[in-house]
Amino acid sequence: MGIKDLVKPEHFLINHRIESCSYNLDRHALSKTLIENMIHHKGVGLSANQIGIWERAFAIMAEEDTIVCFNPKIIKSYTEKVSFNEGCLTYPDLFLDIIRPNSIIAKWEDEDGKIHKEKLTGFTSRVFQHEYDHMEGIDFTQRHVL
Ligand SMILES: [Zn+2]
Fold first, then answer.
1. Fewer beta carbons under 10 A from the terminal one: N or C of the chain?
2. Closest CA relative to residue 15, chosen from 46, 50, 45
3. Is 136 assigned a catalytic role?
4. What is the pLDDT along the chain (146 residues), one digit of tens a residue?
């Protein structure tokens, strides 16, 4: 699929909930595309809809590795909240302080359909939550409280 342009914030795909992954989706190809594009566009996370792909999947930079999550879910959000200055590839040059839970229990499928369930904390949790919002058609400008 190669390097793709980032879609604009007003694009339909940015503002609508993304349904579960297509049955016949080539997950390995999409995984490669998401990682390539995340690195090319210099992000720490990238959702498929941000590059015009209508699939419920995103790539994130975790502690030491890159993870691609298909059909991600947040099972639990812990009560402790933290503020962090976030950016988003869809909004170049915009950085906003966003308050989110520090830890979550996340669930997702990998390229092979294997289910993962993990407690994420700190940076990885932050990026997962930001990208998860993209799956729900929400972006960080809607999370920002003055
Ligand atoms: Zn974003």
1. C
2. 50
3. no
4. 799 999 999 999 999 999 999 999 999 999 999 999 999 999 999 999 999 999 999 999 987 889 999 999 999 999 999 999 999 999 999 999 999 999 999 999 999 999 999 999 999 999 999 999 999 999 999 998 76
Cα 102 to ligand 1 centroid, rounded to whole Å: 18
CATH fold of 12-142 reads Peptide Deformylase (3.90.45)
Distance, CA 77 to ligand 1 centroid (Å)?
19
Give the contacts of 98 (CB within 8 A, at least 6 positions apart).
83, 84, 85, 86, 130, 140, 143, 144
Angstrom distance (rounded) from CA 99 to CA 56: 24
Centroid of ligand 1 to alpha carbon of 46 (angstroms):
7
Name the pTM for this structure: 0.96
The CA 25 to ligand 1 mean position distance, Å, reads 23
Task: Round to whole Å and give the CA distance between 30 and 47.
Answer: 11
CB atoms near residue 146 (< 10 Å): 4
Strand partners, 111: none
**Choosing from 109, 118, 131, 136, which is the catalytic residue?**
131
